[in-house]
Write the structure tokens for this entry.
Amino acid sequence: MKAFNGILYGGDYNPNQWPREIWAEDMRMFKKAHINSATVNVFSWAKIQPAEDRYDFSELDDIIDMLSKENYDIVLATATGALPAWMAAKYPEVERTDYEGRRHKFGQRHNACPNSPVFQKYSKALAGELAKRYGGNPHVKCWHVSNEYGGECYCENCEKAFREWLKKKYKTLDAVNQAWNTEFWGHTLYDWDEIVLPNALGEGIGYDKTAFAGLSIDYRRFNSDGMLENFKAERDAIREYDKETPITTNLMGTYKGLDYFKWAKEMDLVSWDNYPSYNTPWSQVAMCHDLMRGLKDAPFMLMEQTPSQQNWQAYNSLKRPGQMRAQSYQTVAHGADTIQFFQLRRSAGACEKFHGAVIAHVGTENTRVFREVAQLGAELETLGNVVPGSVNEAQVGIIFDWDNYWALEYTSGPSIDLTYVKHIHEYYRYFYDKNIAVNMIPWDADFGKYSLIVAPVLYMVKEGMAQALEAFVENGGTLVLTYMSGIVGQSDNVHLGGYPGPLRKLAGIWAEEIDALAPEQFNEVEMASGETWCCGLVCDLMHLEGAESLGAYKADFYRGMPAVTKNRFGKGQVYYVGTRLEEQGLASVLDMVAADAKVESVVSGGEGLEIVCRRAKEGKLFFVMNFGDKERKLPECFYQQKDLLTGETVSEDTVLKKYDVYIFQMNA
Ligand code: GLA
Ligand code: ZN
């Protein structure tokens, strides 16, 4: 496979939206900013295929020639993220039908029906045509299929495809009826054609939920698979003409709609778009990076970020001086081998004209943002021989599972506040604060690589999951389980015989009931140490079955019942946290866990700083970043080290202000 030259630095570039005089100016300014790559053709379907029977690559040829002559690495998109108007007019089936049953008209983007035979035919043909034409160009270093796959369609083509998908999965209608528990309300299906997609006109309750979570979860799986088929069709069409160039599509972090672990298996490289808001915790951004790296357990591409501000959030604050740089290094620290922007020149019209870009509306390089981009570009150029291919390593694995994401959020009760990502993040945050490296892993990962597995809200325990976790703990691993775990199987039917179902033996507890607390309600947990922590959301009413109690509820009729437990199992141990603890309380429990599992911070000291390590061939790279408001000093282990970015030798007097970054290369 082709490789990038150093760290790819550039981003979405839409010269087709500008007169030609501007192109030369772009080339001049990109060089000044140390930009070495451009992503083109993302939304150009209407331009390169102006009619059903005609391609017109003349302008794209010119763009690619220009970039090739200037020696840019090109990320070439297949342009299928937005439909051309002629296609929607002639074939209304390419447009999606929404949850309310309305067939959409031409407009918007990321909205082709994944099961439209017309869309399938033309998108695949276009991808093949592009590969035939440009696949041999050595400057084309990466294929970017479509753009940000996502959304849902509830049209008749999708309904038919859903029935076929179900036939493949379940073989018999009896099995479908059983999986969805259709006997409830007498919704028994006697013919495959009676199956209706979960939508507002069918089983829908409010937005997105249905009366039959099993149906909704299967629809999610089906829809994720269907879009993945779209991706694969374009990928395979490209591969017919181009065997050498890696193929990706830009993902969206913890986006709910697609099972990215499944997707990543079909992608050569993972790439993603990082758009935190002004109030997104940095720990959450870090978690998304770790998840994107975890998809293939490999370095990834940052396909998009804004150099300054967004346009589509509620409050599109500017990135403060130094923030974009620090955010970029955080990205690299967590495993990115590219830094790319949306976009290189700011749009003159339509809904993204307020979206930041490398070149602002003023059109000159005399802007704060341009200067910051250029500074980062120069720095990344020097890191180009050091960083790419270096790897992140971790002793801690946190399980992230899209089936669980869907199931937890589709289930009705016990609390609407049981959202998936938030609870995963609460556990992740502890390790982030301590600078303990984490891999975000799928449930079927090789657990043997880890000393600690954390599986927050593992509500759905699918076949094989409990056994894999048991084997891990038996062999000496430490496992953390929480409330809302082990309750249902793959179709949202309860594992009968007491919560947490298949995890009961492992946890050594039985949760007889689950109380739900409203936001204004709380209980407290008194730990054996005497410390008392506030708790809420849900409270498992537990009985010990071999585990020891580490802390008990202080109030209500279940006062004195265990809230946090620890069970020895084989050579390892299982912690079960039966309620949502306040941050400090959870941290004190996880302190015990980390000590038991012998997992350590990347370096000692460094409180308030984010410190991440990537192992390169020539030693470890330590990225030290300050995202806090307080000024901080470096941990002792770095004294007298040389910062790779400035060449400066640091000492006990070195102070990191907000957004300051240091990188050290050490053989430690
Ligand atoms: C997404 C898209 C881009 C652009 C940006 C704006 O990531 O992929 O085309 O719309 O958002 O933030
Ligand atoms: Zn459809």
Q: What stands out?
A: The two ends are 32 Å apart (CA to CA). The chain is about 30% helix and 20% strand. The first strand starts at residue 8 and ends at 11. The CA atoms of residues 287 and 397 lie 12 Å apart.
